[in-house]
Amino acid sequence: MKILLTGGAGYIGSHTAIELLKQGNEIVIIDDFSNSSSKALDAIKKITGKDFKFYEMDYKDREKLEKVFEENKIDAVINFAGFKAVGESVKKPLNYYINNVSGALVLLDTMKKYNCKKFVFSSSATVYGNPEKVPLTEECRVGGTSNPYGRTKLMIEYILKDIYTSDDSWDICILRYFNPVGNHESGLIGEEPRGIPNNLMPYIVRVASGKLEQLSIFGNDYNTHDGTGVRDYIHVVDLAKGHVKAIEKLEKEGKGLYIYNLGTGIGYSVLDIVNAFEKSTGQKINYKITERRPGDIAECYADSKKAKEELNWIAEKNLEDMCRDSWTYIKNQKQE
Ligand code: UDP
């Protein structure tokens, strides 16, 4: 299969590129480096020993995108080109709707023109809003997302359903990520959020490295085992392998619109993460308890049965792997 990865130099895209190449697929990457760097492309080549075509461009640029389809016989597309910072999406909603929604429309319409109808979409557990129950199954109610980022994910899911309803020769797989953390074990690629990180693990590693002073734990009065928020953290390499399985399903079975949760099925609290990080890396995390963060929910974790049964996929890495591999990359950066 020749697979186009939009945003393939980013955090999840680059890890998926490695797993796809390892399985013998060909890939083409496009990226504008708005939230990534060319270092990731060198790392993909170094880790896999394989080469691929790369186009530095905005995926919304229709003319350039058509050229990519003209020059390559693309069998399937995985779209990683979405913006993903929740806080930023509240401040810059138009940027998010334009990049994520308009971008997806340009991409899908171009795919249609070139009769490329296999599409894997990076969605998020955020589409469940305030979970009606945990663990969350794919059938749980969606909606009630509290920010523009989450709404773009849900809108694109609806768009994909409409496209499939109108033309069932599309093969579409929507992957709802829970909380991706960790990095490739080589320490060569990793998550590089712009500015001060929003998410827990990137914040913790920067406290450990001395870049940030103290972690604020947003509330310890939730109805959870220790009062802090509970999430389903999943190692990015496991997540990347989920994409390979999704592509395989579309290649072999095709003809359908599928939705899968990609999570471990285990919920860990903020304090569980801090303790596990300290234990597996030997680094002390300075923290204080503060107010709840507006819009946060108490707990969110996946029922991952459907992905296991239909994709033959399960998360294999544990919390210790996630903490260690998150730290290795940052430690390497420090030494550079
Ligand atoms: N969190 C925290 N301090 C931080 C960042 C996050 O206590 O600096 C908590 C947050 O309240 C939530 C969990 O960590 O309970 C995961 O937050 P994150 O932003 O990583 O993911 P999301 O809330 O989008 O699932």
Word description of this protein:
The protein has 336 residues and is an alpha/beta fold. 42% of the residues lie in helices and 18% in strands. The protein is built from eleven helices and 14 strands. The chain has helices at residues 11-22, 39-48, 62-71, 86-91, 93-113, 148-166, 200-208, 236-252, 270-281, 305-311, 319-335; strands at residues 2-6, 26-31, 53-56, 76-79, 118-124, 171-177, 179-181, 215-218, 230-231, 233-235, 256-262, 268-269, 287-290, 299-300. The strands form four sheets. A seven-stranded parallel beta sheet has the order 3-2-1-4-5-6-11, with helices on both faces. A three-stranded mixed beta sheet has the order 12-9-14. A two-stranded parallel sheet has the order 7-10. α1 links the parallel β1 (2-6) and β2 (26-31). α1 (11-22) packs parallel to α2 (39-48). It is globular. Uridine-5'-diphosphate binds next to α7 and β8.
Task: Please supply descriptive tags for the structure shown above.
single chain; 336 residues; alpha/beta; seven-stranded parallel beta sheet; 42% helix; globular; binds uridine-5'-diphosphate
Bound molecules: uridine-5'-diphosphate
By secondary-structure content and strand pairing, the structural class works out as: alpha/beta
Give the total of beta strands: 14
Instruction: Write down the secondary-structure element order.
Output: EHEHEHEHHEHEEHEEEHEEHEEHH
In angstroms, what separates the terminal alpha carbons?
Answer: 37 Å
